[in-house]
Amino acid sequence: MMSLKNIPNMKHLETNNFFLLAGPCAVESEEICFEIAEKVKAVTDKLGIPYVFKASYRKANRSRLDSFTGIGDEKGLDIIQKVGKHFGIPTVTDIHTSEEAAMAANFVDILQIPAFLCRQTDLLVAAAETGKHINIKKGQFLSAESMKFAVDKVRESGNSNIMLTERGTFLGYQDLVVDYRGIPEMQKNNVPVVMDITHSLQQPNQTTGVTGGRPDLISTIAKAAIAVGADGIFLETHPNPAKAKSDGANMLHLDYFEKLMIDLIKIRKAII
C-alpha cells in the first residue's frame, strides 16, 4: 500500500488514526483558508490525526454560468501553497485537464482527480507523470470494482502513490447513496481508501441549478465509513456554510468539527 509517510509534512502517522483531507470547497480568500486551516490543524494536532489541507483553486464543474469558479488559478494556488508552508502541512487540490497537472504540481503535494473525470486517460497519465501523490475520486456512475482500471492507468504510467475516494453513487437524478461494500472492494487495489463524507450527501440536479445537500447526516456517513475500515476521511468545512461560495449546502460547520473527530476516533479505536 502507498506509504503516507512519503507525503511531505504528514504528521501523527504513529497514532494509527485515520487520516484527514479537509478544508473549504474552493479558495474564496486567503483569510478564509487560513481561518479554516488554523482551526483544523489545532484539532488534529490535539487528537493526533494526520492532516492534509484541501481547497480547490478552480471549480470547473458548475451547473450555471454565473456560479463561482474561483479567484484566479495562480492566486488560488498561491494561497494553498502559503497555507501549507505557514502551518507545515501537506496540501491537495483538484485538477481538470492534463495541462493543469504540471502547473498545480508546483504548488501542492497531492493532485486530486474529480469524480466526473476519473476515466479521463490523458488526465490520469499527466497527473501520474508529475510524480505527485494522486487521489482519484470514484465516479458517481461507476462501481467500486471498476476503479481498478483508474489505478492501473496511474501505476502503468510509473506512479504508485495512489489513493481512492468514495463519494457516493447516483440514485436517480437528485440523490446519492453510499454502498459501504465499496470501501473494502477498492482497498483490494492495495491503496488507501478515503470516504468523502460531505460530497456523498449532495443532492445534485436541482431545478435552481444549485446543488442541495443533507449536512445533518454527515456524522452518520462518517461513522459508518470508519466502522467499515476507511483509511481516511475527506470533508469540506466552513465557518459559515450558508455564505460559502461553493457547496455550502453539504458542508460541515467548522464549529462541529472537533466533536465529529472525537467520535470517529472512538470508533477507530474500537475496530483496530
Structure notes:
The structure is a single chain. The protein is an alpha/beta fold and 272 residues long. It has a single domain (4-12, 19-271), classed as Alpha-Beta Barrel (TIM Barrel), CATH 3.20.20. It is built from eight helices and 13 strands. The strands form three sheets. Strands 1-2-3-4-5-6-9-12 form an eight-stranded parallel barrel, surrounded by six helices. Helix 1 packs parallel to helix 2 (73-87), helix 1 (30-47) packs parallel to helix 8 (257-271) and helix 7 (218-227) packs parallel to helix 8 (257-271).
Poorly predicted residue ranges: none
CATH-assigned homologous superfamily: Aldolase class I
CATH topology: TIM Barrel
**Beta-strand percentage?**
15-25%
State the order of secondary-structure elements, H for helix, E for strand.
EHEHEHEHEHEEEHEEEHEEH
The CATH top-level class label: Alpha Beta
In short:
With 272 residues, the chain is of the alpha/beta class. It has 8 helices and 13 strands.
Output the keywords.
single chain, alpha/beta, 272 residues, 8-stranded parallel beta barrel, two-stranded antiparallel ribbon, TIM Barrel, 33% helix
